[in-house]
Here is the input.
Amino acid sequence: MRNRVIANLRGTVAAVASLALVAPAPILAQAAPGAQVQPQDQPSVDLVNPLMGTDSDYTLSYGNTYPAVAVPWGMNFWTPVTGKTNSGWGYTYDANKINGIKQTHQPSPWMNDYAAFSLMATTGALKVKEDERASWYSHKAEDSRPYSYKVYLADYDVTAEVAPTNRAAQFRFTFPQSNDAHIILDGYAGGSMVSIDKAKRRITGYVRNNHGGVPDNFHNYFVAEFDHDFTVSQTWDGKGQVTATSTREGDHVGAVVSFKTRKGEQVGVKVASSFISLEQAERNLRGEIGGDGFEQTKTKAKAIWQREFDRVQVTDPNLDNRRIFYSALYRMLQFPRMFHEVDAKGQTVHYSPYDGKVHPGFLYTDNGFWDTWRAVFPFFALMYPERDSEIMQGLVNTYKESGWLPEWASPGHRDVMIGSNSANLIADAYLNGVRGFDVETLYEAMVKNATTSQGRPVDRKGKVVGAVGREGVEYYNRLGYVPYDVGINENAARTLEYATADFSISRLAAALGKTEDAKLYATRAQNYRKLYDTQSGWMRGRKKDGSWSTPFSPYKWGDAFTEGNALHYSWSVMQDVQGLADLMGGREAFVKRLDSIFTTPPIFDDSYYGQTIHEIREMQIVDMGQYAHGNQPIQHMTYLYDWAGAPWKTQYHVRDVMKKLYSPAPDGYPGDEDNGQTSAWYVFSALGFYPVTPAVGQYAIGSPLFQTVKLTMPGGKTLTIEAANNGPGNVYIQSASFNGTPHDKPWLTRAALQQGGTLRFVMGPTPNTAWGAAKADAPFSMSAPVAGR
Here is the structure.
């Protein structure tokens, strides 16, 4: 994601060579070089590497992550800061200095942060500006875990630590002997206030920094409570001017409190915040930390993560595979973050980033549904229906408070990415048994999205928030597609995504007894056919008069598509894979076309952007042809062989992607991690199945990575997944059984998995080309619904 910031740049269209449909190379499975093999002797929470994905920058993403110190779905995260505070790249692995540990709410570097402030410990002459106070550090003296972070600040001989709760955290700073030991609180630019109370040993205040998606009264109120008296207390401004005043307010202000310390003396700070009020921040501090010491908070946070990881227990001799898996699971369980709090009456309430008022009920935010509808939310529906219900309740509240469903919220509506993908995750939740939310209101909101583009909210500059609703929906409903020549960019991608959303609406309408709506939206779900060009064999932009956009290159990124090209988006027909295969000439031709993605050289046309965006570069450098796993539109493609009589090719490619493109290292992702989606692909794929089609409760089978997995399903039943003879060279399914009954179809159902039992695969080094290959074995498609039921 995230190149919408340059999407309006244009250049000349480059000439590109014609597409070659080459037969696939021989399938060879081999052990990953350097794979570590160890017994399972560590708690799974301590297998997580929060630094996985942090070796990234604007030009090349290996995750674009930061080490989030948090509890699952927590309102506040904490992270060390190595970069400028106004940069989305707050922590990068190649940096040498740390200038603070900040409270962060950043979902992506492309969205940047909001409501952030930081703490930093120093000694000696006081330096408050971030570039001046920054200290050299080493990864050799850094301990990063989901539940804590510890680092040695070499310039000051200080060790800094932090441990989290949902809305609070504890810091512990270990100082050397010093008459001038300082803790600096930086409120950052964008509006901040600090007030020091020496008697209560507290700093209180607020910060207002943001990058959009907030109303005018937006504040993040905080309280920081120290366990030591201050010898000196001062405040400062963005120019670094320090004065003895106890209160300061402005665009950029901060506070500093100082101590005399003995060698090894530890100063503790308890910090909490609230989007509602200072009183609520104090309530959050008392309710979540109270009288706990640092080690108690750390232990509790560790236990929370371990409880979640215990629900998914993997057994395998390959340590790296387990490290990747739990690191990915850690990322999956961060977003969307809770934006609600618990008031004095014990009631759940939230400040609304949509209307600026405090309302009862749940609210979750910091999520781009363009990314996460594909696998993150299906995982929640499968494993966390209670949490998914809360998220759905939050969507109801968003609709009531803003008039629209969110598509990219951070914390309120943000104008980025395309589609109407909220429909997919709502329908998928309900049709997979998630309850406890007002589905009729959400259905009304889905239909509104699919009916009008008028009345959408505007930002502070009066610009329409284009990612809300459906841009060009009136054209789409009249013509069956969004035209190429009416000033709406990424029009082919929008059409394909709207068609999938219409499928989800049709499924939900049928479940709610809305028969006519179900027929209408099922018809619109076939609109993908309007963009299929039989001459080129790819999806293509189409003009208002019905003619094709010209010139056309399947290698051209952007333009009619979103962060991809025709070779990537032509597979975005999750609702009707059989129908797409028929358009491409049948099952054999479909398989050849799938193969061609991996065998066609990674040539590209970046003229739409005027530069080679990072998603293009990530495709180009991994030697997998045109397969661009670093971005979402094509991530499901490896599973489409299951519909075409060649499940063994899905098995090969899925394992190949896991082996080549993921590692537990700082460069461990193949592109932007994106709110858990690229992690969710790995988690599902390692388990052995993946949710391609929304709202049908099916999972396409791939190739299980581990020898044994034990999943504690909702309600407490255990699903055991066994893969006999599994290993790096044995990626192919020879046979399968479920609870002792032979299973010969390349898909599974949500209902069966949640009932628990034993799913057993027998693996081998060569393909069993007969397993799951019959046409009647294929998963659900609109064009062949009986076979997939």
